[in-house]
Amino acid sequence: MKIITNPTELQRQCLAWRKQGLSIGLVPTMGYLHNGHTSLIDRARPECDRLVISVFVNPAQFGANEDLSSYPRDFESDCAKAEAHGADLVFAPEPGAMYADNHATWVEAPKLGEHLCGASRPVHFRGVCTVVTKLFMLTQAETAVFGEKDWQQLAILRRLVRDLNIPIRLIGHPIVREEDGLALSSRNAYLTGVERAAAPNIRKGLLKLAGKVREGERDAETLKRFLTEEYAAALPMGVVDYIEIVDPDEISPVETIARNALAAVAVQMGKARLIDNILLEV
Ligand code: AMP
I need a labelling partner for 62 at 20 to 30 A (CA). Which of 16, 98, 99, 200 fits? Predict the structure, then answer.
């Protein structure tokens, strides 16, 4: 498995592969790989001839008071996992190699970032869209796999690819969880024992909410109030950032669940901001 840190070198390698008629797959990550990431790699592997994993803690998607400097890293372990799951190349640039001092070009889809994580993290999706566009251009990938854990991110990237006619196919992969239901996240490493023990209640609340919808409840306000009360009882140390019910494609709030909707939450548990979601099918 190759390790490349220089963007131009990555582009040269990928162009050479394309000239040989080989298709390229891409799985972008911020590293500290867990089984969620490796399941994305497994999903991508049979879709392409050459598989590129990027490991880049992208400064542009972190706000000033967020966890950029403390974000967990373990590059050796990441490379071992990527290789064990069949990656051909790990791309791990330094921030300065991706963003020149006078970097001035941004990609964004502001309408889809008005709610959920975009509301509490104003520069986040602009940073994501820009770096992912750069990765698409550098790799010339035909296929890229993203996790549904970051549902809003996936919805935005699908729109970006359509709107800018980028010749790539995006595959969404279901959320990978611990046995107790907690969605895997690199940020789970921040949780204290007490926080970790309570964290599965994020998912449990979402499942109860989906149960209410199955029983016929359609009013979003009632459902959100229900989940707010659940979390107040089951996650006393959690500070809810948002509990929202949105259209799964437009990421805009719905008042009544007339067709499929997405319930999405973000809860700050100590140092860890945890997100999760569930599709409400009607
Ligand atoms: P990150 O390293 O957190 O930026 O995540 C890189 C990719 O892995 C994104 O497409 C995420 O949505 C995906 N991902 C992270 N955690 C999970 C998970 N528990 N299940 C499925 N995909 C995930």
Answer: 200
Structure token pair of residue 197: 């023990």
Ligand 1: which of 27, 150, 170, 175 to mutate, most ligand atoms within 8 Å of CB?
150
Residue 133 pLDDT class (50, 70, 90 cuts): very high
Ligand 1 atom 12: the closest Cα is on which residue?
Answer: 147
71 band by pLDDT with thresholds 50, 70 and 90 = very high
Cα-based distances in Å from 148 to 117, 155, 203: 14, 9, 14
CB 172 within 8 A of CB 148: yes
Expressed in angstroms and rounded, the spacing between residue 88 Cα and the centre of ligand 1 is 20
- Predicted local confidence at residue 243, as pLDDT: 98
Burial class (CB in 10 A: 0-12, 13-18, 19+), 255: exposed
186-280 CATH choice from 3.30.1300.10, 3.40.50.1370, 2.130.10.10, 3.30.470.20: 3.30.1300.10
Distance 16 CA to ligand 1 centre (A): 29
Inter-residue contact 208 to 265 (CB < 8 Å)? no
* Residue 89 host element (H or E): strand 89-91
Domain 2-173 -> CATH class: alpha beta
The pLDDT of residue 257 is 98
Spatial CA neighbour of 30 closest among 187, 264, 168: 187
